[in-house]
Design brief:
single chain, 60 residues, alpha+beta, 2 helices, elongated, binds zinc ion
């Protein structure tokens, strides 16, 4: 069931679904970030170092 919720990233009001836990804007940013990270992982091929960097970058 969908419900109105505050975006945990930017506090914008958006419709929360089981697939979307942040607003549209943040979702697109996250998606782009994920693509960048994915590309980075494939390019570097060094998972342990990359994962540490991802964790550090995503947690505030
Ligand atoms: Zn947001």
């Amino acid at each position: 069931m969908n419900e109105l919720s505050d975006c945990p990233n930017c506090n914008a009001l958006f419709v929360k679904t089981q697939f979307r836990i942040v607003c549209q804007e943040c979702f697109l940013v996250e998606e782009k970030h994920f693509e960048t990270v994915y590309y980075f992982l494939r390019k570097r091929g060094n998972k342990s170092v990359a994962l540490k960097e991802i964790t550090g970058g995503r947690l505030k």
